[in-house]
Amino acid sequence: MKINQNYDNLVPNYLFADVARKTNEYIAAHPDKNVIRMGIGDVTLPLAPVVVDALKKGSDDLAAKETFKGYPDYEGYDFVRDAIAGYYKTFGVSVDPSEILVTDGAKGDSANLSEIFSTDSVVLVTDPVYPVYVDSNIMAGRKILYAASGEENGFCAMPDPAVHADLIYLCSPNNPTGAAYNYNQLKAWVDYANANDAVIIYDAAYEHFIADDSPRSIFAVEGARTCAIELCSLSKTAGFTGTRAGYTVIPKELVRDGKNIYDLWYRRLSTKYNGVSWPVQCAVAAVFSEEGLKQIDENINYYRRNAKVIADTFDRLGIWYTGGKNSPYIWIRCPGGMGSWEFFDYLLDNAQVVGTPGEGFGSCGKGFFRFTSFSSYENTVEAMKRIEALLTK
């Protein structure tokens, strides 16, 4: 028996595992210090009351013979997909419920979708990049190309017409940089994908943070239905990081190599996946109710306020950044020419604040650093006070 040798090509540790290890080692050595974590993008506010009520009712349904539910439909219950399609209409995008598949989140789908494409496919990712896009394709042995981004393009990488790719991963608003593509930028990517007979795997996990006219969905862009798959997670929209739910949208007209992509994905899904539980699907539908959207907006605005505290701090310090306006992430240039991990250690040692080193997201992240707005407001204010005091000494 042999092991998949592609695993040898992965970096030894997942980025956030290294951040956690270094943080825990510091805490163990300095038990008297109050460390504030602003690195991993995990939410801190509880689920919205309407969502909790739906979870409870869904659980109660399982306690009675008349309302008990067993295996769900692989693609999700009709009432849930209808609710998601209705949500798309609120920002002017038409998606048919039959094109929506309810899953346990965008992270798994972003990795697993590549299984239906050949291992000979050339993959294009933007750099910096969410590590899962890269790692999952390294595991499959695919060739990976990088579209560079930086201050010169606002960390919105654009396609190079001279480069051919088969699979393209885009995330907007972006994790880790917080940058959001405008319509014309996304149209350039859609045109590139259609010209190359490529497929875009578009991660819209942070679309609910968009506060300007940036597209909330790639399907707001003309031509996207013939080249794109959209993923969305409720982890950040509605605090489902522990509850686990999301959805994938595959237009029925998306065809490659003579094969319908929706049909292929459904075939894979029905073989390897048994769907999202009844209580969680009830909770998903509640998110997209009128009251649900009102309540989750209150949570989103809480995190937006945190992001503004962070952004205002770096404005006062004169430090360049992206994000913070359409995103829960703020991506800064490390002060004083420090490297990413150097700045990580500097902050932890001198301010007891934890962020995420940018170079962990790719070579274009060297010298940059990510903060999240998912801490409590009190901790966010305190962390920024410490950082401002440290950097103005």
Provide an overview of this structure:
Helices cover 39% and strands 15% of the residues. The chain has a seven-stranded mixed sheet with strand order 2-8-7-6-5-3-4, with helices on both faces. A four-stranded antiparallel sheet has the order 11-12-15-14. Strands 1-13 form a two-stranded parallel sheet. The N and C termini lie far apart (59 Å). It has helices at residues 15-29, 49-61, 78-89, 106-112, 131-140, 183-195, 234-238, 261-272, 278-287, 290-317, 340-351, 377-391, and strands at 36-37, 100-103, 122-127, 143-148, 167-171, 199-203, 228-233, 246-249, 255-256, 259-260, 321-323, 329-333, 353-354, 356-357, 368-372. The protein is built from twelve helices and 15 strands. Helix 2 (49-61) packs antiparallel against helix 9, helix 3 runs parallel beside helix 9 and helix 10 packs parallel to helix 12 (377-391). The relative contact order is 0.17. It is an alpha/beta fold and 393 residues long.
Helix content: 25-40%
Overall pLDDT, averaged? 96
* Poorly predicted sequence stretches spanning 5 or more consecutive residues: none
N-to-C SSE series? HEHHEHEHEEHEEHEEEHHHEEHEEEH
What class, by secondary structure content?
A: alpha/beta
Strand content: 15-25%
CA gyration radius, whole angstroms: 21 Å
SS field, number of helical segments: 12
Largest sheet: 7 strands, mixed
Gross geometry = globular
β-strand number: 15
